[in-house]
Amino acid sequence: MSKPDSLRFEDFSLPSEILKAIQDIGFETPSPIQEKTIPLLLDGDDVLGIAQTGTGKTAAFGLPLIARIDPKLNHPQMLVLAPTRELANQVAEALQSFSRNIAGLKVLPIYGGQDYGQQLRALKRGAHVIVGTPGRVIDHLDRGTLKIENLKSLVLDEADEMLRMGFIDDVERIMKDTPASRQTALFSATMPAQIQKLTKRYMNSPKEVKIESKTQTVSNISQHFWQVTRLGKMEALARLLEMQEGSATIVFARTKTATTEVAERLEARGFKVAALNGDMNQTMRERTIERLKSGSVDVVIATDVAARGLDVERIGLVVNFDIPYDSEAYVHRIGRTGRAGRSGKAVLFVGGREQRLLYTIERATKQKIEKLELPTTEQIEAMRLQRFEEELKTLAQGDDLAVYRTISEKLAADLEMDAFQLASLLLMKGQSKRPLIMPNDPPERLGSGNSSSQGDRPSRDRQSRGRDGGRDGGRFEGGRQRRESGGRDGGERRPRRENSGEARAPRRDPNMEMEVYRIDAGREHGIQARHIVGAIANEAKISSQNIGHVKLFDDYSTVELPVGMPEGVQKHLNRSFICSRPMRMTKFDS
């Protein structure tokens, strides 16, 4: 039987719940590594994957191995080891999205620097999939808080990176402790001798899948990244769009909901904008593209799937509002500009925990992405004034102003003003969505100036180790690694509040059992810990003493609240607002 030209996910023997999740996420066709790996893992084979980061490995192992989990058995059945906490979080989020339609299936990330109590409570409740860094996994194994005797599958993601960071002994110890009958998938960009020894010692006749890395060049597109600061993504996006002259812009967001939200907020600022996502039928999609071509729309906010095949000559700027997890997706995105030899510009918004993804994209494209300085208030004001002058010139050439001159003369006389005073007053009153005078921003909000904490790019050596350090959580002082008390990762000691985005609530009963909730608002929305505590205390009438730790991330936050919150209170909080943004509060591990 001949192989079809292009496989679909429906061609694999994946459960309907996973296929629906794939459809919701927007995956269309498997990448090369997914096409080769998924059938092998579904058949129960061990797999040795040799592939670069950004080729779609997470779905390659996640989809088939999740399909083999029995959610009725409330113990760890799948363990994924990752070299850094950033990658562990990224993989956990992806696996949660793949399993969103499987009732009761729980995914838990565990890594150094994370609150131990939170991890212990989650492990006690039970999780089917554990995604962790080697040091913290061993910590829990030694404490007896993580049981892996019934493990069905083990995944080593970026094995060569774990070797480089000094985790190889930890990895081998974990592999020894797992059942011999477990299925193993190991992924590595290179295959050093120590990794080869692991495959021979602990894997069962692995099938090799090798994906050749491609040199991806986009030399006619100038590429820049902007480090997300307190200014926030929306303000940064608006400033970039203000400086666009004549050409159109496509902005990529990760979800359908985000395309609508960003479009609405830009429209409120006076931009001609439309959303483009998978919820639109073909007629609506074609109408939006025609509006973009004709100039009645200048900005389109799109998901990756909705923008497939989009070819509009006037697109001069591509903005990655949400950084893609896949370098191939990045290349496809920025390829919407710079068509047919024309030049284009691409900007990538990078959150504080997304530096690693930036470096992955640079390696894949073999191009350095330069840091971007956002337009200043003075530049924006100059551009607005220039456009206002052009509008006035057009009006002066085409309209009979005699009637308005009579009115202005009467107004000036009635108000006892000269013509310049009246003109200045009308000019001030006429400003609405885009005033000619803007409030000045301090340099750190723009990601400029000398502050390394806001806009400067961290060194690659420091970033590559991550905050997990050499073994998931040691601190470095004077070039020497120092461990904190409380375990191998030193995770018991809490980082300083101004660096972690974490706030301590007033002292509460230490025996009170807490659970973690996710709030759809974070640093980039201008949220501070006090805003979250205040909103919950006011809306739910919960004493601030009963509100636990608040942690701020780039686009979301988490908060600890007492176990057993009435359903009505949770629903009310879910519908409430924080700093004019919907809270959308849900249990973090649900």
Question: Short description, anyone?
Answer:
By secondary structure, this protein is an alpha/beta fold. It has 22 helices and 23 strands.
Description of the structure:
Residues 236-380 form the Helicase C-terminal domain. DEAD-box RNA helicase involved in various cellular processes at low temperature, including ribosome biogenesis, mRNA degradation and translation initiation. Residues 38-209 form the Helicase ATP-binding domain. One of its GO terms (biological process) is ribosomal large subunit assembly. Its EC number is 3.6.4.13. The structure is a single chain. The chain is of the alpha/beta class and 590 residues long. It folds into four domains: 9-210, Rossmann fold (3-Layer(aba) Sandwich), CATH 3.40.50.300; 221-375, P-loop containing nucleotide triphosphate hydrolases (Rossmann fold), CATH 3.40.50; 379-430, no CATH class; 494-587, Alpha-Beta Plaits. The chain contains 22 helices and 23 strands. A seven-stranded parallel beta sheet has the order 3-4-2-5-6-1-7, with helices on both faces. A seven-stranded parallel beta sheet has the order 10-11-9-12-13-8-14, sandwiched between helices. Strands 17-19-20-18-23 form a five-stranded antiparallel beta sheet. Helix 2 (32-42) packs parallel to helix 3, helix 8 packs parallel to helix 9 (193-202) and helix 13 crosses helix 14. The two termini are 43 Å apart. The model is unreliable at 442-507 (pLDDT under 50).
